[in-house]
């Protein structure tokens, strides 16, 4: 099944010293079991694994301890049995030197396996089942960057894989891990090729091995001959010329097939899949033995170690333990590399673990790897372009990368660079070209991520603006519909009323004759009456009746329209109904007078003053008492539902509601008694009310709240001024006296309120009002000098806020935040500066007035300063009640949390149902951000209130 194939050459390439014989003389050995294993969750390209265990759990060898998190991800397994002792951030072996979440297992030395899942008859197994099996066993590429193998084997529907290429070139100097694997475990590789062939269904398979490993070539050919049933397709073992970097994926494909992978493309575009020999062997172990990727062959070489060779090493073994086992001489160690000298990277410490992509640990002496020569200027010799296997222009890419002209570097196909180091190797000026190229790639990726974030933010902003505009248009349409309906109803009622007034009687002529006859009869009857009796002005009575009727109808129509448009509260409705009742009675009285005058009677005399109850006043009082009770009850219910009140506050408010209910019932009873004729006279009621003066609890409560707000505001301003160090000793004393005065005022107001709640009636309503006036007027008694000092403190606070905002902007720019974040911080800075300038201007005005007052003792006193100054101070002393503000923020945070949780549930349901959930994910993120902001505001308000 094996035959010779035609080989092609690649552009460029070099022939560095191989130094492979150091580690290829001994067979593969088993590394010692360490006391602890360190397993980073990020050992592959893509999303890091997601932990499925916790600290303290016992694990078995081969047990899955972290799940693949996303499509491009890989699972992680316990390399041996033991106990999870920690999960922490630790440094990982990576050129960035960054840290990652790491699982630490303390081994028990028993090597107890978990139950293993084996698929012996893979030829009759669905390829999708095999792919899932490979994914669950954590197999990744073991010859490069660690791309998840199951993803690479998942071909698109329109991709037909014609050729499977197995990479056994291992062109990097010093490394012999793949060489020893092919030489000693060729059967594992061939069995793995059979499994991959069943998944991909290729026409042929080519195994490429450099001709400096002919013993490996012979071992593979022999294994191919001994597995005729395993390989139902053509398999060719090809010995290719030894040249670096022939082991690169694109270069090996070109050598074996003559095809070039297009710029920006992948081998699958050519119908080719390429896998490393180590990866193929790991697939064979996972399917046929049920063994996940928990170990790998690692080359330990370099003249700083005594026992060089290849070791089967558990993933997570400390590099320090491995080097100690090989006899590391720390005094001779000059440079420590992970990987080979061409594409490897330096390690700053041995306290790092072996991971799935660790194929070599190179501990070199100074003689092997002397310090880099001094970098000199580029002489434009062109040797780098001749050596480049990707046929790039390294010299141009160097200039662009050095000047940070990333767009030009990208235009010159920077991402086709495989970072093989051939250009740096041949450069006579010793320029580290690969490092410049890596820097430029990182810069381009950072810019692309910033653009992606900016575009997403723009899309969210535009979607929000569109949503707000749509909601506003809908609200405006509803408002217009309500207004049109109200106007239409009003017009119809006015038209009906006008028609009712203008419609003549059906028997107008008969009515006219009857009216004349009645008038003649009345005239004859009155002929003998006393001439001194006052005459009745029928015309005036008619005008009076018509005006009263018009006023009544107009008020009724206005109320009906307001009710229909839902523009009035129940209290306003009660008041308007009382006014309408008044107008109705006035109209009835006027109509009665007119009817009496028409029937020939005299104008009724004004009724004598009566001591009976005032029915209108009682009705209005009952309506107002009912509205007050309902309003208080609704407020209490809302506060209870929001959970904003303590047990004492609930009891106090319930007592207040009960008191209002009693007042309403009393007023209603008085009204009912008056209607039935049993009510006491108005004078008696007034006397009774005068003998039992009521305490105005509401007024006392408002006075106490205002006094508390004034005291807290003064205290905070004083604390901020002291912290800023802007007050002299005299100003400190004055401010302390002012704060103490406001505190005493608040305590007096609070005591009066507590006495009123407890039923102490020593203070009358007048006293409560007086107390309220005293508290309310307290801030107004400040002298001009005190107001200036208070304004000085506020300006200082505003200046500090502006400095803090400027600091935030500077830190964001230094940290490289996105343009959106910096723009938001700059807007905050502008607002803070504007606020400071405004307060500083007010402070300067007051400062000038204080100066003028001192220079002119005969001028007016501080209590009568110009109105413009008083207005300035009034603007700065208005402050919302901190307790009320905290309650509002608490409710807002609860509502934001509920909205966020609701969207999370919707997203979970949508994900279970399948389909595109990107829009919902954006909404969840926005809702979470709003909740975080609301929660921070609530916490700050609560802390300020407690303080």
In a nutshell, what does this entry contain?
This protein has 947 residues and is an alpha/beta fold. The chain is 55% helix and 9% strand.
Describe this structure in words.
This protein has 947 residues and is an alpha/beta fold. Among the domains are: 697-877, no CATH class; 882-946. Helices cover 55% and strands 9% of the residues. It is built from 27 helices and 17 strands. The chain has a 6-stranded mixed sheet, with helices on both faces. A 4-stranded antiparallel sheet has the order 2-8-7-4, with no helix packed on it. Helix 20 (697-724) crosses helix 23. The longest helix is centred in the middle third of the chain and has 70 residues, at 433-502. The two termini are 85 Å apart. Residues 529-535, 601-612, 679-694, 760-781 and 858-880 have low confidence and may be disordered. It comes from Litoribrevibacter euphylliae. Residues 470-496, 874-885, 926-935 have a biased composition (Basic and acidic residues). [4Fe-4S] cluster 1 binds at residues 378, 381, 384, 427. Its EC number is 7.-.-.-. Residues 370-398, 408-437 form the 4Fe-4S ferredoxin-type domain.
Helical amount among residues, as a percent range?
A: 55-70%
Mean pLDDT: 80
List the total number of helices. 27
What is the total tally of β strands?
17
Shape: elongated
N-to-C terminal Cα separation, in Å?
Answer: 85 Å
**In order across it, which strands form the biggest sheet?**
1-14-13-17-15-16
Radius of gyration: 46 Å
Report the biggest beta sheet as strand number plus sense, adding barrel if it closes: 6 strands, mixed
Poorly predicted spans: 529-535, 601-612, 679-694, 760-781, 858-880
């Amino acid at each position: 099944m094996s035959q010779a194939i035609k080989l092609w050459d690649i552009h460029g390439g070099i022939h560095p010293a191989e130094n492979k014989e150091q580690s290829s003389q001994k067979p593969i050995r088993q590394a010692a079991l360490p006391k602890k294993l360190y397993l980073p969750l990020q050992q592959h390209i893509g999303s890091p694994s997601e932990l499925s265990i916790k600290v303290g759990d016992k694990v078995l060898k081969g047990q899955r301890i972290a799940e693949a998190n996303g499509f491009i991800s890989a699972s992680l397994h316990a390399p041996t049995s033991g106990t999870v002792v920690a999960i922490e951030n630790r440094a990982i072996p990576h050129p960035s030197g960054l840290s990652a979440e790491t699982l630490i297992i303390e081994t028990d030395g028993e090597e107890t396996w978990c139950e293993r899942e084996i698929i012996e008859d893979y030829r009759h197994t669905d390829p999708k089942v095999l792919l899932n099996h490979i994914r669950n066993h954590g197999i990744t590429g073991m010859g490069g960057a660690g791309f998840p193998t199951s993803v690479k084997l998942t071909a698109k529907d329109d991709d037909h894989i014609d050729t499977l290429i197995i990479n056994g070139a291992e062109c990097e100097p010093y490394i012999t891990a793949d060489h020893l694997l092919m030489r000693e475990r060729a059967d594992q590789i061939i069995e793995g090729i059979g499994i991959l062939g069943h998944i991909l269904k290729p026409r042929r398979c080519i195994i490429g091995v450099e001709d400096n490993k002919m013993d490996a070539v012979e071992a593979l050919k022999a294994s191919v001959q001994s597995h005729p049933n395993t390989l139902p397709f053509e398999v060719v073992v090809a010995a290719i010329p030894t040249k670096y970097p022939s082991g690169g994926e694109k270069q090996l494909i070109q050598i074996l097939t003559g095809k070039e992978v297009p710029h920006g493309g992948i081998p699958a575009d050519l119908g080719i899949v390429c896998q490393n020999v180590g990866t193929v062997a790991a697939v064979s172990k996972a399917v046929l033995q049920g063994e996940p990727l928990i170990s790998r062959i690692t080359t330990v070489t370099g003249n700083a170690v005594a026992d060089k060779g290849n070791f089967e090493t558990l993933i997570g073994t400390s590099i320090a333990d491995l080097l100690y086992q090989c006899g590391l001489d720390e005094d001779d160690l000059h440079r420590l590399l992970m990987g080979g000298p061409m594409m490897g990277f330096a390690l700053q410490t041995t306290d790092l673990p072996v991971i799935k992509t660790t194929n070599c640990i190179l501990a070199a002496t100074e003689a092997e790897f002397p310090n880099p020569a001094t970098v000199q200027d580029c002489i434009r010799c062109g040797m780098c372009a001749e050596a480049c296997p990707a046929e790039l222009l390294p010299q141009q890419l160097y200039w662009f990368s050095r000047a940070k002209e990333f767009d030009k570097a990208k235009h010159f196909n920077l991402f086709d660079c495989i970072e093989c180091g051939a250009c740096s190797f041949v450069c006579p000026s010793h320029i580290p070209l690969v490092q410049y190229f890596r820097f430029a790639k990182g810069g381009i990726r950072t810019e692309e991520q910033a653009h992606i974030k900016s575009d997403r933010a723009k899309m969210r902003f535009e979607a929000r603006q569109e949503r707000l505009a749509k909601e506003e248009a809908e609200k405006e349409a509803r408002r217009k519909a309500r207004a049109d309906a109200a106007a239409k109803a009003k017009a119809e009622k006015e038209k009906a009323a006008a028609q009712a007034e203008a419609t003549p009687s059906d028997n107008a002529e008969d009515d006219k004759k009857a009216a004349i006859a009645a008038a003649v009869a009345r005239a004859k009857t009155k002929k003998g009456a006393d001439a001194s009796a006052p005459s009745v002005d029928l015309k005036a009575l008619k005008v009076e009746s018509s005006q009263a009727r018009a006023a009544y109808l107009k008020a009724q129509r206005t109320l009906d329209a307001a009710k229909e448009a839902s523009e009035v509260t129940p209290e306003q409705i009660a008041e308007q109904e009382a006014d309408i009742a008044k107008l109705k009675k006035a109209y009835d009285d006027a109509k009665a007078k007119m009817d009496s005058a028409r029937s020939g009677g005299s104008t009724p005399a004004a009724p004598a003053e009566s001591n009976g109850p005032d029915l209108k006043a009682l009705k209005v009082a009952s309506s107002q008492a009912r509205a007050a009770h309902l309003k208080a009850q609704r407020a209490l219910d809302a506060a209870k539902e929001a959970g904003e009140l303590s047990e004492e506050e609930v009891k106090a408010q319930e007592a207040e509601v009960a008191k209002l209910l009693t007042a309403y019932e009393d007023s209603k009873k008085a009204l009912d008694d008056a209607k039935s004729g049993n009510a006491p006279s108005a004078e008696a009621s007034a006397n009774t009310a005068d003998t039992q003066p009521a305490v105005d609890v509401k007024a006392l409560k408002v006075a106490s709240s205002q006094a508390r707000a004034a005291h807290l505001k003064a205290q905070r301003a004083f604390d901020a001024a002291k912290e800023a160090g802007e007050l002299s000793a005299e100003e400190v004393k004055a401010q302390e006296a002012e704060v103490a005065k406001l505190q005493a005022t608040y305590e007096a107001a609070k005591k009066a309120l507590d006495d009123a709640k407890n039923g102490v009636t020593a203070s009358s309503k007048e006293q409560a009002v007086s107390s309220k006036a005293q508290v309310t007027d307290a801030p107004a008694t400040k002298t001009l000098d005190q107001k200036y000092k208070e304004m000085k403190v506020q300006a200082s606070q505003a200046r500090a806020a502006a400095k803090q905002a400027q600091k935030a902007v500077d830190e964001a720019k230094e940290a490289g935040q996105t343009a959106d974040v910096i723009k938001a911080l700059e807007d905050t800075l502008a607002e803070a500066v504007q606020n400071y300038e405004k307060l500083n201007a007010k402070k300067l005005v007051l400062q000038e007035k204080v100066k003028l007052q001192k220079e002119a003792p005969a001028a007016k006193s501080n209590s009568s300063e110009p109105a413009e100054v008083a207005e300035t101070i009034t603007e700065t002393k208005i402050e919302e009640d901190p307790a009320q503000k905290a309650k509002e923020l608490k409710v807002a945070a609860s509502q934001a949390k509920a909205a966020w949780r609701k969207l999370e549930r919707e997203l979970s349901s949508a994900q279970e149902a399948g389909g595109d959930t990107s829009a919902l994910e954006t909404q969840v993120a926005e809702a979470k951000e709003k909740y975080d902001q609301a929660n921070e505001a609530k916490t700050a308000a609560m802390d300020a209130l407690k303080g």
